[in-house]
Write a structure and sequence with these properties.
Distance between the termini: 97 Å
Largest sheet: 4 strands, mixed
Oligomer: single chain
Structural class: mainly alpha
Shape: elongated
Radius of gyration: 27 Å
Number of domains: 2
Order of helices and strands: HHEHHHHHHHHHHHHHHHHHEEHHHEEE
Number of helices: 22
């Protein structure tokens, strides 16, 4: 009679554990959504009409997200967009966030099209990135052995670090949640934790495959943060292998389960290599075709923060923005140099080095990782980077594309979150143990648990609040898709063209305009030729390029070479039509 009871109880226990995990995941996601909505309410309110922080990079990403959805619907080739006169492969002039393609399906299901759909994808992407960062870090802390209270602190710290307020203009940089979630799934799938060590009974190939799948998706979002992520996966695997060897090479799992875990690792690792090849190939082709796209070490000092940058918040930080104005003074390129993970998080992490649920060896490992990664994030600041960042830049494949060392703050923040989670977990765990031992509610212990579960994560989120402006984005002054193409819109510049590219989401006309992560020589030459427009020489040069229509937007012209263009006479063979905020020049020759 014993065997049947055991056979029936095991599935019941498994089903109960599975239900608890689903309920917990749902509750955590709800908390993450609520906190994200509170902090980023302007993004929710201006979902279809506004962009965060400035009208530069965010507009480029809005256009890019819309193009990916347009192309994947079968309407156009993916890598050759409507900008840059449809120069082959121009989507790879900077990060192409292919992993966000499902957002296009969502906004179209909501009935949105054109610029409204593009901006909705941008803002939804930012909100989703924040929620996933919270959920991913929470899952990682839980997979490594923390209770839910520790997980909440890790999630809050990773999703609402003050440095994210500055990087909100770069959706590809704040999309960090997949990295933490992939590590969580892989840790769970291999039975590793920082409290109990290796537990073969917890290993499972399904978790492992899911972890590699999330890693593949994360890599499809951004190479700017994806390259360090790939190396971090290798480093984590190496550290785990050393730990397994020092532990006496215990069985990875029981019997056939071990083989399934190894097969899952092999299949997942191979899938990651395939994805890496597919997403990097277009960029390598761009580098081969456009030498000016190559990042050199000369860029590094411009983007390398000073030491105080690690403790400095962006000016949009509600708590530290004004208070640290003098700290930001003298920084070369502030947007990439204000890297504060949060003083609350730093304090909790420091306490976590001394007192934690994590084993001592893991605490030391995390503390060392924080220091090493923080030094690397300073780029060439310490000793010109000779012994820190430059060896990686010069010798690691793919690293020479990373001209902004400060973005390694992502990994500094994640390590700090785990240290903080270990401390809060230890404090809350001790209070919970006293409650269980007493068999009754103790006010002191209950207050400690409540503080760990609500007050501490709340303080972390509160420090991450900001006053990021959300700007209303002007719509096109005249339907560009209805004009003879290709169309050149003036004024044109590397940044100004982002707005024009966004306008082109209304009907996708072929544009001569185009801006991206670098400025191709052919685009530089085109802009020089267009500076004298509408002179006869300029018209002839643009005609040789195939430009059919030039549109001048007078409201955008002050302070540019085209501020007086509207008053200039036009040469023979060019027709001009004046609209309220657009002057249209038809360059096509009659007959």
């Amino acid at each position: 009679m014993v065997v049947p009871v055991r056979v029936e109880e095991a599935p019941a226990r498994q089903g109960s554990a599975r239900r608890r995990r689903f309920v917990e995941a749902g509750l955590v996601t709800a908390v993450a959504c609520a906190a994200t909505g509170w902090v980023w309410w302007p993004a929710v309110k201006g979902l279809r009409t506004s962009a965060p922080s400035n009208l530069g990079d965010p507009l480029y990403f809005a256009w890019q997200l819309a193009w990916v959805g347009h192309a994947l619907s079968g309407s156009a080739p993916l890598w050759t967009t409507n900008a840059f006169d449809a120069t082959p492969g121009n989507l790879a002039f900077t990060d192409a966030m292919l992993g966000y393609a499902p957002l296009g399906l969502l906004v179209h299901a909501l009935g949105l099209t054109g610029q409204a759909a593009a901006l909705a994808q941008l803002n939804l992407g930012g909100l989703f990135a924040t929620v996933l960062a919270f959920v991913g870090a929470y899952a990682l802390a839980r997979a490594l052995g923390a209770r839910w209270v520790g997980g909440l602190v890790a999630g809050a710290g990773f999703a609402f670090a003050p440095w994210r307020l500055e990087q909100v203009i770069h959706l590809n940089v704040v999309s960090t949640g997949g990295m933490a979630l992939a590590l969580a799934l892989l840790a769970r799938g291999h039975g590793w934790s920082m409290t109990r060590g290796h537990e073969p009974a917890r290993a499972g190939p399904g978790w492992v495959l899911a972890g590699w799948g999330v890693a593949c998706w994360q890599l499809s979002l951004s190479l700017a943060i994806g390259v360090p992520f790939a190396y971090m996966l290798v480093l984590v695997a190496a550290v785990s292998l050393v730990g397994w060897w020092r532990a006496g090479r215990p069985a990875l799992a029981s019997g056939a389960q071990a083989r399934r875990v190894l097969v899952a690792d092999g299949a997942g690792g191979l899938a990651l290599l395939v994805v890496a090849y597919l997403v990097t190939r277009p960029y390598l082709e761009v580098l081969a075709a456009y030498p000016e796209a190559k990042r050199t070490a000369d860029y590094l000092p411009l983007f390398s923060p000073p030491l105080r940058g690690l403790f400095t918040a962006p000016e949009t930080s509600r708590w530290w923005g004004l208070r640290q104005a003098s700290w930001r003074a003298g920084m070369g390129w502030t947007p990439e140099m204000v890297l504060l993970p949060g003083f609350v998080l730093l304090g909790l992490a420091l306490a976590g080095v001394v007192h934690s649920s994590w084993r001592r060896a893991w605490r030391i490992t995390l503390a060392v990782a924080v220091v090493v990664l923080a030094v690397l994030a300073l780029g060439t600041t310490p000793a010109g980077g000779r012994w820190t960042y430059l060896p990686l830049f010069n010798h690691l494949p793919g690293w020479n594309g990373l001209r902004t060392p400060g973005r390694l703050i992502i990994w500094v923040t994640l390590a700090l979150c785990l240290l903080a989670a270990g401390f809060v977990d230890a404090v809350a765990g001790a209070a919970m143990a006293r409650l269980r031992a007493a068999g009754r509610v103790s006010r002191g212990s209950a207050a400690v648990v409540a503080a760990c579960a609500v007050v501490v994560p709340g303080l972390v989120v509160l420090e991450g609040r900001g006053e990021v402006p959300f700007w209303q984005v002007a719509t096109q002054p005249i339907p560009l898709a209805g004009l003879p193409q290709p169309v050149l819109v003036l004024p044109t510049s590397q940044i100004a063209d982002y707005h024009i590219m966004l306008w082109s989401t209304e009907g996708w006309p072929l544009l001569t305009n185009g801006g991206s992560g670098f400025e191709p020589n052919f685009q530089v030459q085109m802009r020089k030729e267009a500076e004298a427009f509408p002179s006869a020489e300029s018209v002839d040069a643009l005609r040789r390029r195939g430009v059919a229509t030039v549109v001048l937007v007078p409201s955008r012209a002050p302070g540019t070479p085209w501020q007086d263009t509207a008053a200039q006479p036009v040469p023979a063979g060019v027709t001009r039509t004046i609209h309220p905020d657009a002057v249209v020049y038809d360059l096509r020759r009659a007959g």
